[in-house]
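Q: I'm writing up a methods section and want to include an example of the input and output format. Could you take the sequence below and give the corresponding predicted structure tokens, formatted cleanly so I can copy it straight into the document?
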Amino acid sequence: MRNRQQLQYMLAFGVDLLSLAISTVLVKLLFGTILRLIPAYTVSDYVQFYSMLAVAFLIAFSCFNQNVDLVRRDMKSELLRVVEYNTILAAVLAILLIVTKASVADSRYLYLGIFLVNAAVTTAARGILRAYLRSGHSLPMKKLVGVLSTRDRVEPLVRDLHRDWSKNVIGMALVDAEQQDIGTLVEGVPVKARFEDFMEWVRRDALDEIYISLPGDTSESLMGYLTEMESMGLDIHFNIPQLDRLREMQNRTGLPPRAPSGMVTVGGVSMITVESVQYSMRDLMLKRAMDLAGALVGCLISVPIIAVVAIPLKLESPGPLFFRQQRVGLNGRIFNMYKLRSMYVDAEERKKELMDRNEMNGLMFKMENDPRITRVGRFIRRTSIDELPQFFNVLKGDMSLVGTRPPTVDEYRQYESHHKRRLSMKPGITGLWQVSGRSDIENFEDVVKLDVQYIDHWSLGLDLKLLCKTVAVVFAGRGAR
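A: Here is the clean output for your methods example:
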């Protein structure tokens, strides 16, 4: 809920700011360029006016509680909010214009036109945003949700989750399901498992969150499952039977049902949440902005470098220049990762013959003098040039500049539950493992420990520190094979 509110706040801020900018341009075009009703002010006059308009916008926007769910607002309440918001905006700007004695204050067409047009544009823009969120289209931070419940409790729970635009319910497990129920739909969501094979489904599928709603006589056997899911890095929402009984008593006595502080009600059930890590939405958005900026610069730098190494690489080993491989990303999502091909084209087939020479103690494969790597391939690996196409993965949003290294699908299928914890953050081009020895670390469990250490102590400052260390490691050629 906190993440949804923060994301909604940022979306509303962006939509309202864009609406005001569009309204300002339209008014200037209509009353200034076409009708010539706005006097010819100087550039400094307009800079002063737009600066005060920006201040007025920040004050007006902050006057409203943006946590009220945008999707559930009706048209009447939305129109009322738009009128109130524009009234406050106009009043604050008027005060600023009077206090500063700004020259632009003389133009009533510019002043009144902005707020009249902005009221219409803001209403339309918020309506478009609300329709988009209701349509179920995927957002970058939309959570993949699984449900564990019983037949008599699952339908109201799923209906409530469907109303939450920040969640995508992809499957459920029913405690009282029969084998023939697997694959059937309940409220449009497929039944993926019974209670007996619930954890097998959770380990296999890409999931960010689990909602558990069970009666008291069933929930006692969940402790082992809760511990395992927590070790995987999943957010867990579960009901407490005593709170359900309290709610029933409140209903019988006619008292208004109330969820205890810090809890939410989903499907008529009070739930508490256990989160693996807690990141602020602001920091995550800044991380994404840093990823986009870094990836754009990286792509521009990569083009001439790739052009130079492409000729000797293709001459030594005919075949595609780029290597595309399925990797496992955030909480089990599958994506195609791109690299410059540093091996012969039959490398994947020859890997099976070399497994007994694997120098990694665990699920990853590394070996000294791997015969599948070409001579040019050794150079681009030692200099990390083979990683440059992954800037495109960062632009797409599959990866980040800094994170954990994504495993192959084969490696992922062999994971134990606690290994999945390293996937609870978006994978990166570089990370703590890369700057801590990389190929010199031969125990997979040590890799997992470094990844979990990064996830548990993540900050923007840590990302910047690791990026600087990566540059030093790449130039020194340490730990690269």
